[in-house]
Design a protein that fits this description.
Chain A: It comes from Gracilimonas mengyeensis. The complex is a heterodimer of chains A (about 425) and B (about 325). Chain A has about 425 residues and is α+β, with helices and mostly antiparallel strands. Chain A has 9 helices and 18 strands. Classes of the chains: A alpha+beta (about 425), B alpha/beta (about 325).
């Protein structure tokens, strides 16, 4: 009896997984518990294990290809077993067998046509969410194709809302170009880089979906505060000098300051949930980590209760895992607040998009050498700007300002964090 | 404008043409002394006499042959069938002779004949009395086919049909004879064969429906309007030659099309129109053309089965929702 190996649900939000690698090939013998493949989900690269033993009779998906949840990836069984039945059904993306046995006598041809179409649609939509099918062909109505050509829109960038992901008129009308095309080029000849199309990774899809949703749904507003970092610089030097095996960063200090401020301003440590605002009892601070293909947000749990040394070592470990794409979903879930720091790139200040379901995100800029006025005299100062993006459904301007002032007080009086 | 029943519009057209041209005469079962099985020749016997209003025996092949011969010899006969379901008996005359004589004689023989009568189903009449034949006649070169939906179209087009020098199949419906409608009282009111009409303007979807199905589509359009869908309803009126430019222009505006046809699906009017649209308007389509037709099943007698068999407004609405991606 052959056994189908289907794409498992490896994270709460995954809709499809990309086969990162196969650890077995056709003909291999596997036992229950063997890791047969690595699958890239929207969150991480995860291992898929076999639950049964047998011979790998067929591998249906190439490395690098996406499979929808429940889609057939491979077939296990006894050597020489006939699996043509299973392979025939493979087209419907592993969805439960279609029930078209009933109403056969109702030979109404129109209905038959409709049934056939619906079945087709099911097959199409389960095999792919975007408008491209496995063969890379973009499905678009002839009209949509023409409109896209007239407007200079690349169909590959348009999501199709029709059956099977077909791009239709409405999709072209609603399409918004991310950037206006450059002005007409002068008639000079330039060497150009090769134009290419980069396949959208699972991570990019997730970033695109979540951040678009956040930016378009949450009414963002922004408040920036300038913080005197001299005391924090001194405190960091003292700590790092005193302990050889500890090396805390400014970001660790900012995480700690925010975590403490969040316990005092619980409305910032909350989530919008339609009928209610959830004010979280625990403070879990996510830290945005830039990696090669995008960005991840590992979470420092109970950051308010942890010391700087622990925050520092955890952050370093999680960032390392993130860069290796080894973060587990539970290490990325459950944040109540997020910090994004671009100070190391010399960015003076910036605004960040709220990381759902958080109410706020804080964007941290670089520490700058600036002249400041102290006691009526201009003296050298160390200043850092932080910008809080808040969801106005939850947090109002004055409340956000109060939170920022607490953060500033803590950073300007680091000893207060010990309280 | 005068409000006339469908049967009165038919009679007015025949009357005016008989009055205008002495070579026009009508024959068929019950057309004379009984004033027509559906009273569409009422009073004509009294006005024109037995020589031009002729009762025939129940012999469709025979009297159709007489009609074809009369047309060959220069008269302009109108042959009435009690229903086109009975005209199958006369197919040798209609298809082998009427449609081909002009062609086979290199145009030496003209065939100014009209075959007319009710077409398609009319309630619980059983499988042999419920067939829509317009697609079948339209298959044959040499025949023009008209199946109108409203009295005004019927009058203007029947007059054109009688004046045409080619054989014309002119179709009506038992269920529409009593239907009233405004009819132009313009002198010598003529509608050219091959001209369709936009009977309702809309921007979201083009629905093509003729004959009895026009009224089904009209009902669907009224429902859809409440849902915010504006249907452009085209009645081609003439099945062949088809007013394709009218349909194509409409689709350029709406980008979607549903064809409603009272015939069976295989090789019918809806398939032909669907084909022509994909060829002529491919680049304007935002969805595959859908059709609503009879199923590929003979007419049932039972009332519930019959109701399920005949296309209704709901089926049209479903098809419109499909092409407008609203389902």
């Amino acid at each position: 009896m052959a056994i189908k190996i289907e794409m498992p649900k490896l994270s709460d939000t995954m809709e499809e997984g990309v086969i990162a690698s196969w650890n077995v090939k056709e003909g291999d013998q596997v036992s229950a518990g063997d890791i047969i493949a690595e699958v890239e989900t929207d969150k991480a690269t995860m291992e898929v294990e076999a639950f049964d033993e047998g011979t790998v009779l067929k591998i249906l998906v190439d490395e690098g290809d996406a499979v929808p949840l429940g889609g057939l990836m491979a077939v296990l069984g006894e050597e020489g077993e006939d699996i043509s039945d299973i392979l025939e059904g493979a087209g419907d993306g592993g969805s439960s067998s279609s029930d078209d046995s009933g109403d056969q006598e109702k030979a109404e041809e129109d209905d038959k046509e409709k049934n056939a179409e619906e079945k087709e649609e099911k097959e199409e939509s389960s095999s792919s969410d975007s408008s491209t099918s496995d063969d890379g062909r973009i499905k678009a109505s002839p009209l949509a194709r023409n409109m896209a050509e007239d407007k200079g829109i690349d169909l590959a960038k348009v999501d199709g809302s029709g059956p099977g992901g077909r791009i239709i008129k409405a999709d072209i009308e609603n399409y918004k170009e991310e950037a206006a095309p450059a002005a007409a080029a002068p008639s000079q000849q330039f060497e150009s880089l090769e134009s290419k199309e980069v396949k959208v990774s699972q991570m990019r899809k997730t970033i695109a979906r979540r951040l678009s949703e956040s930016k378009f749904t949450n009414p963002h507003f922004y408040e920036t505060i300038d913080i005197d970092m001299k005391p924090a610089i001194a405190a960091r030097k003292q700590i790092n000098d005193a302990n050889e095996d500890v090396k805390i960063s400014f970001n660790d200090i900012v995480v700690k300051a925010c975590a403490i401020a969040l316990t005092r301003h619980q409305y910032v440590n909350s989530s919008w949930s339609d009928d209610v605002i959830k004010q979280h009892g625990d403070v879990h601070v996510a830290v945005a980590v830039a990696i090669e293909e995008g960005l991840m947000t590992p979470v420092i749990r109970h950051a308010d209760k942890k010391g700087l040394a622990q925050i520092s070592s955890e952050t370093r470990e999680l960032a390392g895992l993130a860069r290796d794409r080894k973060l587990q979903p539970e290490q990325m879930e459950g944040s109540t607040f997020t910090i994004s720091n671009l100070g190391m790139f010399g960015i003076e200040e910036f605004t960040a998009i709220i990381n759902p379901p958080n109410a706020c995100i804080m964007a941290v800029g670089a520490i700058r050498d600036v002249p400041v006025v102290e006691n009526g005299e201009v003296v050298p100062g160390k200043r850092m700007k932080v910008t809080l993006s808040s969801d106005h459904r939850i947090v109002d301007g004055a409340k956000a300002a109060e939170f920022l002032n607490t953060v500033r007080q803590l950073l300007e009086n680091p000893l207060a964090m010990l309280l | 404008m005068a409000e006339l029943q469908f049967r009165e519009a038919i009679k007015a057209a025949i009357d005016e043409e008989m009055d205008r041209e002495e070579k026009v005469f009508i024959m068929g079962e019950e057309v004379a002394e009984y004033d027509g099985a559906y009273k569409s020749t009422e009073g004509l016997l009294k006005k024109y006499g037995f020589k031009r209003v002729i009762d025939t025996p129940i012999s469709e092949l025979g009297f159709s042959g007489i009609g074809v011969g009369a047309a060959m010899n220069g008269l302009r006969p109108i042959v009435e069938f009690m229903t086109f379901n009975f005209a199958v008996l006369a197919l040798d005359q209609i298809i082998n002779h009427a449609s081909k004589a002009g062609y086979m004689t290199g145009g030496q023989i003209s065939m100014p004949i009209v075959f007319r009568g009710p077409n398609a189903s009319a309630g619980q009449l059983g499988a042999t009395h419920s067939v829509a034949y317009d697609s079948m006649y339209a298959h044959f070169p040499g025949l023009k086919v008209i199946y109108t939906s409203e009295p005004d179209d019927a009058k203007g087009l029947l007059k054109s049909a009688i004046r045409d020098d080619n054989p014309v199949i002119f179709m009506e419906s038992e269920q529409m004879y009593g239907m009233k409608g405004e009819v132009s009282d313009e002198d010598d009111y003529i509608i050219p064969i091959g001209k369709g009409k936009i009977k309702r303007e809309g921007s979201d979807v083009t629905v093509v429906a003729h004959g009895k199905m026009y009224h089904v589509a009209k009902q669907a359009a009224a429902q859809l309007e409440k849902d915010g869908v504006e249907v452009e309803l085209i009645d081609p009126r003439t099945v062949k030659p088809l007013d394709l430019p009218l349909i194509v222009e409409s689709i350029k505006k709406t980008n979607r099309c549903v064809v409603v046809d009272e015939a069976h699906p295989f090789g019918g009017f809806a398939s032909e129109v669907g084909f022509l649209i994909q060829r002529e308007a491919f680049d304007y389509l935002d969805a595959p053309v859908q059709r609503v037709t009879l199923p590929d099943v003979n007419a049932p007698f039972s009332k519930p089965l019959f109701d399920a068999w005949l296309p209704d407004a709901k089926q049209v609405i479903d098809a419109v929702n499909q092409v407008t991606y609203r389902n």
